[in-house]
Amino acid sequence: MNHNFIDSKEFKNLNFNIDHFEIADYEYCNFIDCDFNHLDLSQCNFDECVFTNCNLSNTKIYQVSFKDVEFRHCKMIGVQFETCRLDFFAVTFNHCNLEYATFFKVDFKRSLIQKCSLQNVDFSEANLANLNLKDCNLTQTKFENTNLSNVDFRAAINFNIDLDKNIVTKAKFSMHQLPNVLSKYQLTID
């Protein structure tokens, strides 16, 4: 599909439910304090863009490309990332609310997640290997057949991981987090 190419442009204080949002290829663009809530972004390409203080909750991202994209302080509730293009998926989530998002089979090998609310997120069959989930809240987050190899959970909170249903080789936990990992076994840990 041929799109317009939009390069090095700043979009600020726009509500794209009122202001027109163009389905296009965006490169080196900055989106600041913009509202994309429930918008259909399908077929857009974002390359080295930054979203700051934006609301992207419940956006549709079918076949959207996120290549070296950074999300800072964004609200992204309910976004289904497994529907986007995963071949070049490389994102940074910093201080974001990603509650109820789904990342089924998403590969995070070129991505970063820190200081995010990941409550009720689905990471089933995803590859999180080598991530540092520093200061992330993982309440009710689903890990099933997930590659958690070498993931650093030491500064994460409120998670439960079934060791029998995930790959956890060399994952890092602090001593006080052992109940989160061993709860299934009903052990008493002193």
Low-confidence region ranges: none
Tell me the number of helical segments per DSSP (H or I, 4 or more residues long): 1
How much helicity do the residues have? under 10%
The tally of beta strands, per DSSP, is: 9
Spatial separation of the terminal alpha carbons: 60 Å
What number is the mean pLDDT?
93
Helix and strand sequence: EEEEEEEEEH
Largest β sheet strand count, sense and barrel closure? 9 strands, parallel
Overall structural class, as computed from helix and strand content, comes to: mainly beta
What is the radius of gyration computed over CA atoms, rounded to a whole number of angstroms? 18 Å
User: What proportion strand?
Assistant: 15-25%
Q: Which overall shape is indicated by the principal axes computed on the Cα atoms?
A: elongated
Textual characterization of the structure:
There is one protein chain. By secondary structure, the chain is mostly beta strands. Helices cover 3% and strands 22% of the residues. The chain contains one helix and nine strands. The protein has one helix at residues 178-182, and strands at 4-7, 10-12, 24-27, 30-32, 45-47, 50-52, 65-72, 85-94, 112-114. Strands 1, 2, 3, 4, 5, 6, 7, 8 and 9 form a nine-stranded parallel sheet that branches. The mean pLDDT is 93.
Short characterization:
The protein is built from 1 helix and 9 strands; from the N terminus they run βββββββββα. With 190 residues, it is mostly beta strands. The radius of gyration is 18 Å and the shape is elongated.
